[in-house]
Amino acid sequence: MIEKEFFTTIETHYNSQLPFVAYRKPNEGFVKAILQKDGAIHTVNDFTESGFLFSPFDSKKDTILFPLEQSKTISCEYIISSEISNISKLKRKKEASNNSENEQEQHIKLVEQGIKAINEGRFEKVVLSRVEGVPISEENPIEIFQNLLENYPTAFVYLWYHPEIGLWLGATPETLLKIEGQRFKTMSLAGTKKYDDAIEKPWGTKEIDEQQIVTDYIVNNLQDIVRDINVTTPKTIKAGELLHLQSKISGVLKSEHLKLVVETLHPTPAICGLPKIETKSFILNNENYNREFYTGFLGELNIKTSKSRNTNRRNVENNAYSTVKTTSELFVNLRCMQIKNQQAFIYVGGGITKDSNPELEWEETVNKTQTILSVLLN
C-alpha cells in the first residue's frame, strides 16, 4: 500500500468512528495499522489473545484489545521528511504553554509529600505526574500522528482510537518487553535531563541512583521466570529533546506464561516506584487526577511472524523451510497525549528520590511538556 492510501484509509476509519491503531516501531521504515471492523469493546483476559492491546496504569481496570481475527491489517513504507519536521517543531516551540502558578505550586507540594514519605521510610522511590490541558484549534489526529513520526524516529509512535474510550497519541522511548519465542528483552530507563547539543555529559547522583533502582528491581523480580539474564552497562540515549539513562536486559523465559511476566514488570519503578504496592497506593491517593492510559502499556500481543531460513531469494524451493514464531512487543505509554473537546491533555511526570529537588522536578515536567507540545499543530 502506498503512503497516501494508507493515511486516507485510517482517516476514513476514524471518520466512520471505528476503532483502530496506527503505529511505527522504533527505527523502522514502515507504519502499520490495525483497523477493527466493528465498534465493540474487546478486552484481554489471560494474555493468550492475539492483537493490539492498550492497558491503563491501574491494572485492576480492563486492558483493551483490537483482536486480529476481527480486524484488518494494513502497512506502508514511510520516509521521514526531516526538513518539514524541524520547521514545524521550531514554530511550535515559540508558542509554548504558560503554566499557572497554581499548577506549579500543586506539583511542588505533591513532590514534597513524596520526599517526606521517602524520608519516613514508606518507600524508596515514587514517580509523580500531572496532566496539562492545551487548547488546539481543531482535532486533526492524523496530522499530529505524522508530526510525531517525523520528530521521533527512535521511539514507538502511535495513534489509538476507540469511540467509546478515547483518542490517544504518543512517542514513547521505553520498551516494557519483547518476547520472540522464548527470548526475552526489556530495558531499564530512568533519569532525565534536557538535551543541549551534547549527549555525553556527566549524570548526577540522583539520576544514577534512580536508574540503578529500576535495574535492580527488574532483575531481581525476573529471577524466577527468566534464565541467563544479561544486563548492559547504563548508557545515555536521546528521546526528542531529552536524555535518559538506559540499560538493556535480556534472557530466556522459563515458561510461556506471558501474563505472569507482564504482572511482574508492570508497573515498573520507572513509572510507579519502589516498592510497587506502596507507591502505587500513594499515587492513586495523592495525584488527584486519573492517569487513565498514561504509564500503562500498549503494543502487539502474540503476533505470528514467519522467518525464512533461506538467505538466497532466488532459491524459492528452500523458502518452504521457514520458522514461525509468536512475538509480543509492548511499550510503556510515556510522552503521550489524549485529545478531547478541542484540547490536548499532555501527561508528564518524574521519578522522586530522597535527593530530589521539588523545583527542579517541576522544571523536568515542563521540559517534557515542551517535547510533546512541539508536535501540536496550530
UniProtKB/TrEMBL annotation:
Boundaries of every Chorismate-utilising enzyme C-terminal domain copy: 104-368
Pfam families to which the protein is assigned, alphabetical: Chorismate_bind (PF00425)
InterPro entries: ADC_synthase (IPR005801), Chorismate_C (IPR015890)
Entry protein name: Chorismate-binding protein
